[in-house]
Specification:
InterPro entries: SMc04008-like_domain (IPR023163), SMc04008-like_sf (IPR036810). By secondary structure, the chain is mainly alpha-helical. It has one domain: SMc04008-like fold (Orthogonal Bundle). About 70% of the residues lie in helices and about 0% in strands. It has six helices and no strands.
Length: about 100
Amino acid sequence: MIDDKTKTELEAAAFRRLVEHLRNRTDVQNIDMMNLAGFCRNCLSNWMKDAADERGVPMTKDESRELVYGMTYDEWKAKHQKEASPDQQKAFTNQQKH
């Protein structure tokens, strides 16, 4: 079994790799991620902010989003976000929220 420090380091490395993967996969829309997996880039940034808040680390919502998106959220939306189709919107509305 691995020690807690090593486990935390491995988890952090896996998270960084996931974030990098999502930054490179701009073709994957947040709504599709929500519909398929129940989470998206915004969820990751919210969880990052929650973790900061729990530890008393000052972080705004915009700062946490920039850590995940690699740019401001407005910039990412302008460059990569597409209009959600009626089918995507319906699936999102009907899904179980976390």
